[in-house]
Each structure stands twice: as C-alpha cells, then as structure tokens.
Amino acid sequence: QVQLVESGGGLVQAGGSLRLSCATSGRTFSKYCIGWFRQAPGKERELVATISWSSDFTFYSNSVKGRFTISRDNAKDTGYLQMNSLKPEDTAVYYCAVRPTANSAYYTRFEGDYDYWGQGTQVTVSS
C-alpha cells in the first residue's frame, strides 16, 4: 500500500521560509513524478510545482516561480518543497502526490493524473 506523508508545515511570518517534505513508502513501481498542490480555504486545489523522476524537468505555477524550489532524493524516496519569501496568500493546506511512470523525464501539471496523495500539511503565513 502506497503511503505519502507530508511534514514541515507550520506558522511563519511573511518573508520567512519553510521546507516541506513528502516521504513515500510501500510503492511497487520503480519511478514516479511528484507534484505539490495546495488548497486555500474556499478555493480549489491548485498545482504548486512538479518534478520528474530524473529531476531534469520541473514546472512551477506563476504564483510561486522564483520563490519556491521543488526537489527530490530518490534514494530516500522523499520529495521536498523549499518555500522562501512566503506571503500571506501562500496560506493553504499543501499536498504532495505521485504518479507512477516508466519515463524518467515525465511530469504532469494535472491533478487528475496523480494516483496517490498525502494527507496534507497546513502552512500559515502571517502578515
């Protein structure tokens, strides 16, 4: 049974930083891409960033480009989202998700493409 566990969320002041982690366990597939999504109160869940298995390909939403960095350590089966220069509008529940793939370069921006999801971690940015 595949499990994804996010950690690293919390309360931070505007301009501060947080690093989210997403640990994957129980997988039977060899490769997967990772996506980070977020959902603010009253809003739909949206993509934040995604990364291929090889780490050669990444995609960021315009709202976080230049402030957030997605990365991964395949040896540890863990993905990361480094969030710098946080803004109050970054406040949301952050989810990681994975999609198995045979293509090391594959990544996807689309929520419906992801097969496994974590439970989410709250990020709150105070002004």
Distance between the termini: 40 Å
Q: Could you name the ranges where pLDDT drops below 50 across 5 or more consecutive residues?
A: none
Our Rg estimate from Cα atoms comes to: 14 Å
How big a fraction of the residues is strand? over 45%
**Which descriptor suits the 3D outline?**
globular
Helix content: under 10%
Mean pLDDT metric? 97
How would you classify the helix and strand content by structural class?
Answer: mainly beta
The overall strand count is 11
The major β-sheet equals: 7 strands, mixed
Oligomer: single chain
- Helical run tally: 0
What are the SSEs and their pairings?
Blueprint: E1 3-7, E2 10-13, E3 18-25, E4 32-39, E5 46-51, E6 58-60, E7 68-73, E8 78-83, E9 92-100, E10 116-117, E11 121-126
Parallel strand pairs: 2-11
Antiparallel strand pairs: 1-3, 3-8, 4-5, 4-9, 5-6, 7-8, 9-10, 9-11
Can you walk through the features of this model?
It is a single chain. By secondary structure, this protein is mainly beta. The chain is built from no helices and eleven strands. The protein has strands spanning 3-7, 10-13, 18-25, 32-39, 46-51, 58-60, 68-73, 78-83, 92-100, 116-117, 121-126. The strands form two sheets. Strands 2, 4, 5, 6, 9, 10 and 11 form a seven-stranded mixed β-sheet that branches. The chain has a four-stranded antiparallel β-sheet with strand order 1-3-8-7, with no helix packed on it. It is globular, with a radius of gyration of 14 Å. The protein starts with a strand and ends with a strand.
